[in-house]
Design brief:
With 197 residues, the protein is mostly beta strands. It has 1 helix and 15 strands. It has a single domain, classed as Jelly Rolls (Sandwich).
Length: 197
């Protein structure tokens, strides 16, 4: 090959390589809940052995009560994308059932569940009121934003839940989330998760 043509060809290949590297950099930093490719942040390493409480209302409970079918909700905010393993709620009641979910925010009240995986139904709630873990079947992701913990007491096998005397933004619904009202009390609840890696 002509030496001048060879130099031009190698120069063009070098420019093309730099362009490809720059282009690939535009897609780094995304979060994957599955197997991450090179340079992608991922939730693969997040599990119940290394997660932590990323948001909670942990005020002291002073009493407990139960109400069939009541939904209790508390809002929290993430400042960046989080990997979510589940959460906890202060409740109890032998052989009673409850569901823990994460909802979107809709004008200051719970909107709808973030997705199919953001839920856990438990049938083995202990008799004594305590912070009961509700761990999702798979790790979920939450982009930065405001969300709601929504805890749903079973309409038949209603568990008791603890409460305190200071409201810290809790709401309740007695019609399966069709409408929400401000609560006069606080409950105990939190969300578990990790930062993407």
């Amino acid at each position: 090959m002509n030496p001048i043509k060879a130099r031009i060809l190698y120069g063009l290949l070098g420019v093309l390589a730099v362009f490809c590297l720059a282009l690939s950099g535009q897609f780094s930093g995304t979060v994957s809940s599955g197997s991450g490719g090179g340079g992608e942040a991922s939730c693969d390493g997040c599990n119940t052995s290394n997660d932590a409480v990323i948001a909670q209302d942990a005020l002291t409970l002073v009493s407990n009560t139960s109400q069939a079918g009541i939904w209790l909700a508390w809002s929290f905010t993430t400042t960046g994308t989080k990997c979510i393993t589940g959460g906890y709620f202060g409740c109890g009641g032998k052989n009673m059932d409850a569901t823990f979910e994460i909802y979107t925010n809709n004008a200051g009240s719970p909107g709808s569940r973030v997705g199919d995986g953001y839920t856990k139904f438990k049938t083995d709630i202990p008799d004594t009121i305590a912070d009961i873990d509700f761990i999702f079947d798979a790790v979920q992701t939450l982009p930065a934003g405001t969300y709601w913990i929504v805890w749903k007491a079973d309409a038949t096998n209603k568990p008791s839940y603890g409460y305190g005397e200071t409201n810290t933004g809790w709401k309740y619904s007695t019609n399966s989330g069709s409408s929400w009202a401000n609560s006069s009390y606080n409950m105990r609840a939190g969300v578990y998760g990790c930062d993407p890696s």
